[in-house]
């Protein structure tokens, strides 16, 4: 028996396997060196930013019923934990998965588009341009104001209903108020109810607790010379409808005597033209200076059915709903999101999501060499989907055209202005798109 042939064959097999192993290792190391460095750079930068605002603790795009949210993760860090891009031709894989709604996407100019619009709108002193400040860090709040020119009102999320006695937790940051006043920016401090229907009921059902809450709010407004109070009571029980309306009336009367505005945040009705639950639109609109429509979270953070945060038909329907149920156009402010969500649909049917700055989506997709997607004329948004190891991921995100069309509603309907949730999500991309859109649409 010739033993040399089997021996040679075995040696050739071992050599081939070794070569394949070395080639694979080289490919992986090359891919890691290509993708890893930008990721580490961005994560490091995001961590520095996170350390500068460790006390940020507000919704940040969470569901309105999910309670106080956590500080947002860096967009890259949050998404990188879930992004599992394939190492072969992603475009070929995705081409059959993407809806064929339009061959080209109007993405050009997004980086310079939302700033040019807000500045022109804010020059009209009758037009409100409001930005929420979800931070208790003075330097962070001031930095956000510096980074977002054109804002003429800020609403820091500093106060919370603390207990059934109507006491408040939180406090005003005088340096932030002073900076805003020095730069001709009004300060409307936000007061929330911790999204607790039970706590809200206990206060509204107790005249002494309700009076104490009104006293506390008025005291803070007077001592710190606030320009306004932004009332953000969500998840109020339908049984407290009349109590809540009476509370808003009493609070407004008290603040009006101090020369302080009262604005009220409202979510869109679940059932169009049905304000039979906690919020009696017409009566509430009579008792406040502004109603701010939170036209976002069409699909909330824990929604089992992925979808846009705010598509144009839904935003337009939400505006019309409030107008048609008794909110005057000259009191209605359109609230728009500066964030969107990556959705992860797993093979077992479970769904998770990560909120990110809307302006960061393209850079994230580009970093992982994923297609930017296609433009939906129906939704006025971009859409893309890509496979993951456990299923697939998808995202709907705005472009400069989206911002222009959202803000055209302000002009067409003669609304009082626009509010953005939140300046924490703002970046050069999304903010410049908003500002440009406001300039294009003009001001009411």
UniProtKB/TrEMBL annotation:
Residues 126-444 form the GH18 domain. One of its GO terms (molecular function) is chitin binding. Pfam families: Glyco_hydro_18. SMART domains: Glyco_18. It comes from the Bacteria. GO terms for biological process: carbohydrate metabolic process. PROSITE patterns: GH18_2 (PS51910). PANTHER family: CHITINASE DOMAIN-CONTAINING PROTEIN 1 (PTHR46066:SF2), CHITINASE DOMAIN-CONTAINING PROTEIN 1 FAMILY MEMBER (PTHR46066). This is Spore germination protein YaaH. It comes from Alicyclobacillus vulcanalis.
């Amino acid at each position: 028996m010739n033993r040399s042939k089997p021996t040679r064959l075995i040696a050739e097999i071992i050599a081939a396997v070794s070569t394949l192993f070395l080639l694979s290792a080289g490919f992986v190391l090359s891919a890691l060196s290509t993708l890893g460095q930008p990721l580490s750079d961005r994560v490091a930068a995001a961590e520095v930013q996170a350390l500068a605002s460790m006390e940020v603790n507000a919704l940040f795009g969470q569901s309105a019923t999910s309670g106080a949210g956590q500080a947002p993760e860096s967009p890259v860090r949050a998404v990188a934990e879930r992004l599992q891009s394939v190492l072969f031709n992603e475009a070929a894989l995705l081409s059959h998965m993407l809806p064929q709604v339009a061959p080209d996407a109007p993405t050009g100019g997004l980086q310079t588009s939302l700033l040019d619009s807000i500045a022109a709108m804010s020059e009209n002193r009758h037009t409100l341009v409001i930005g929420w400040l979800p931070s208790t860090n003075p330097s962070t709040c001031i930095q956000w104001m510096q980074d977002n020119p054109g804002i003429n009102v800020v609403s820091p999320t500093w106060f919370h209903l603390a207990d059934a006695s109507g006491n408040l937790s939180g406090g005003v940051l005088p340096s932030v108020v002073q900076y805003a006043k020095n730069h001709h920016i009004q300060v409307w401090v936000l007061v929330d109810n911790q999204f607790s229907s039970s706590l809200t009921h206990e206060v509204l059902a107790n005249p002494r607790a309700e009076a104490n809450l009104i006293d506390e709010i008025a005291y803070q407004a007077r001592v710190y010379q606030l320009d306004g109070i932004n009332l953000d009571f969500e998840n109020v029980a339908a049984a407290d409808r009349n109590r809540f309306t009476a509370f808003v009336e009493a609070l407004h009367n008290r603040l009006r005597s101090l020369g302080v505005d009262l604005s009220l945040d409202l979510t869109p009705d679940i059932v169009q033209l049905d304000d039979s639950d906690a919020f009696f639109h017409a009566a509430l609109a009579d008792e406040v200076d502004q109603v701010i429509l939170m036209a976002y979270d069409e699909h909330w953070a824990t929604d089992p059915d992925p979808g846009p945060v705010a598509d144009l038909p839904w935003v337009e329907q939400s505006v019309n709903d409030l107008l048609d149920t008794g909110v005057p156009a000259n009191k209605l402010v359109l609230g728009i999101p500066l964030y969107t969500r990556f959705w992860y649909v797993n093979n077992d049917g479970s769904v998770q999501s990560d909120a990110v700055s809307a302006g960061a989506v393209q850079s994230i997709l580009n970093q992982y060499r994923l297609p930017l997607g296609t433009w939906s004329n129906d939704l006025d948004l971009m859409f893309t989907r890509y496979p993951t190891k456990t299923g697939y991921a998808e995202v709907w995100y705005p472009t400069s055209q989206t911002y222009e069309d959202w803000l055209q509603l302000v002009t067409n309907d003669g609304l009082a202005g626009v509010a953005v949730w939140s300046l924490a999500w703002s970046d050069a991309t999304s903010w410049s798109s908003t500002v440009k859109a406001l300039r294009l649409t003009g001001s009411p």
